[in-house]
Amino acid sequence: MVQNVAAFFRELEPEDFYLLSGIEQGMRFSEWVQREQLPKYSSLTAEEVTYRLDRCMKHELLERKTIQYEGYQLTFEGYDALALRSFAERETVDGVGAPLGVGKESDVYEAMSFQPLALKYHREGITNFREVTREREYTADHNHVSWLYTARKAAEAEYDALETLYPDVSVPRPVDQNRHAIVMEKLDGGELSRVRLESEQVVGVLDLVLEELTAAYHAGFVHADLSEYNVFIDESGVTIFDWPQAVPTDHDNAGELLARDLTNIYRYFRRKYPSETPESANIEALSDAIASNDLESIRSYCSS
Length: 304
What we know:
Order of helices and strands: HEHHEEHEEEHHEEEHEEEEHHH
Oligomer: single chain
Number of helices: 10
CATH architecture of the largest domain: Orthogonal Bundle
Strand content: 15-25%
Shape: elongated
CATH class of the largest domain: Mainly Alpha
């Protein structure tokens, strides 16, 4: 599990960041940056590089590998530190608190700022690099990409979707983005997968989810990875989050991906609330209703 760099972030000095930034620059050209190249990339003397390498290795911000040469690359902690420094310099984030959620593709922490926010670090590519680069739209045109590139592109894709959708669609309010990290509104309430709805709430919540998918479609996006794990429920309604795989509605596979989203959410409701959820749904007709913004037809599917 990746450690929270906030615990030692204030111990880091400007020269540590010069080294980290230099290695980040070098990783644009090589997976492992040669030791001899570090003074050039970081604008530090060879002696200063040696000292900074020891400090950064101690905090696990770097990884070293000896192949035909001694090479270094950033760890996720190192990349986290660079993003967090940018947020601090912009006064977006004053500090980082407790984890809000940890998964294989992202870690989310409470961010201390002028109001409660969430700091999301994307982790795509470090453990499932081949799968991500094969499936994600933002890596499709690149034959040679690193986990660093993949995670950054995931954050950029999600932030772009949030900026487009908010506030017309109930998604987290986007605040800032740097490298592989996003600062956004902290969600209240509970994840759909963890909440037990009352019988009289089931149809209404399903209807709200479908209405948000409809609004997103007409704002230009299909979620493309919808499940009970990325829908939040609170007293004001539902919020749909986790948008890095979103595709534009003019994408060749947009219709297929919308149908998959609808199938996933219907199967979940049928599995957890079999008595309250319609026995079957015509996914093709429901997709057409969403595309035509036919909310009455959508509500009829929920309650039929």
